[in-house]
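Title: Comparing notes on inverse folding

I've been comparing how different people in this forum approach sequence design from structure. To keep things fair, I'm posting one structure and asking everyone to reply with a full sequence. Here's the target:
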C-alpha cells in the first residue's frame, strides 16, 4: 500500500496568495509541489477543462501578473514571460491531484489553506 505524502503546512502557507478574494496557489508553485513541470500541469488542466470551473481556477491578467512579480521575488521569471499564470483555489488544488499523471500528485495530500499577506484584487 502506498503511503500518503503530507506536505508541511509552512511550505503550503508560503505559497498561498489572496487573489480575487480567494486563497489561491499559482501554477508554478503547484507544479513544484507535485513534482511536475508547469507546462505539464497546465496541459493536464487543458485536457480536463470541464473539471476546472472558474471557482477552481482562473488565469491572471497582465496587470495582476505584474503585481505578483513586484510583490513576490519567486515569480521574477514571469516578468518577461509570454504566458500568464493560472491561480488554483483549494478545490482546484484537490482536482489537480486527480488529473496529474505523476506519482507524487497521487500521493500528496492537499492541505488546508491559510492566509498570506500579499493580495491582488481586480477593480
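Reply #1:
Here's my take.
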Amino acid at each position: 500500500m502506498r503511503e500518503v505524502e503530507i506536505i508541511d503546512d509552512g511550505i503550503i502557507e508560503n505559497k498561498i496568495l489572496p487573489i480575487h478574494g480567494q486563497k489561491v496557489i499559482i501554477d508554478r508553485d503547484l507544479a513544484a509541489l507535485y513534482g511536475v513541470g508547469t507546462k505539464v500541469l497546465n496541459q493536464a488542466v487543458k485536457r480536463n477543462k470541464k473539471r476546472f470551473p472558474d471557482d477552481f481556477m482562473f488565469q491572471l491578467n497582465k496587470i495582476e501578473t505584474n503585481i505578483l512579480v513586484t510583490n513576490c521575488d519567486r515569480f521574477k521569471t514571469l516578468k518577461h514571460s509570454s504566458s500568464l499564470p493560472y491561480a488554483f483555489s483549494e478545490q482546484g488544488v484537490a482536482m489537480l491531484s486527480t488529473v496529474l499523471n505523476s506519482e507524487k500528485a497521487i500521493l500528496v495530500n492537499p492541505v488546508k489553506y491559510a492566509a498570506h499577506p500579499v493580495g491582488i484584487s481586480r477593480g
